[in-house]
Specification:
This protein is α+β, with helices and mostly antiparallel strands. It has one domain: Hotdog Thioesterase (Thiol Ester Dehydrase, Chain A), CATH 3.10.129.10. The chain is built from two helices and five strands; from the N terminus they run βααββββ. The protein has a five-stranded antiparallel sheet with strand order 1-3-4-5-2, with helices on one face. It is elongated and about 45 Å long. It starts with 16 loop residues before the first strand and ends in a 7-residue tail after the last strand.
Length: about 130
């Protein structure tokens, strides 16, 4: 059975995951979002966030009714297609009001050597009584 984000406490840390930034995937991402502004020699920062959140969702499912509320990103350094990065995520805050949960996931993407290249925070909301979407 898949664990739901709804059942995880504030402070929960997801298992870090090493991600290979395959040039083919980067090109497909760029085409899918019609990114004509980012030089092809670097990976768009939002692509890093996308991969990080995808690795998180491999570990915990979204609750039914989840809505993506906001996304914040800070980029410190560019990475190139073909590089490998380590994605980390943790539940930074979790609160409930009027029957809805507001949950923030903090993320960090670092080079294998350890230098942070991108960090950020994704916020979602979902009904306090939510089912797992499978």
């Amino acid at each position: 059975m898949t664990v739901s984000l709804a059942g995880l406490p504030k402070g929960h840390e997801f298992a870090p995951k090493t991600l290979k930034l395959k040039p083919e995937w980067v090109a497909e991402y760029r085409a899918a979002v019609a990114d004509e502004n980012t030089p092809s020699s670097i990976v768009p920062p939002l692509a890093l966030a996308t991969l990080t959140l995808r690795s998180l969702l491999e570990q915990a499912a979204l609750p039914r009714g989840a809505i993506h509320v906001s996304q914040e990103l800070i980029s410190f350094k560019a990475v190139k297609p073909g590089d490998a990065v380590v994605a980390k995520a943790r539940i930074g805050s979790k609160g409930e009001r009027a029957g809805w949960v507001l949950l923030a996931v903090e993320l960090e993407v670092a080079e294998e050597a350890g230098d942070t290249v991108t960090s950020g925070r994704a916020t979602i909301t979902f009904p306090a009584v939510a089912e797992v979407v499978e």
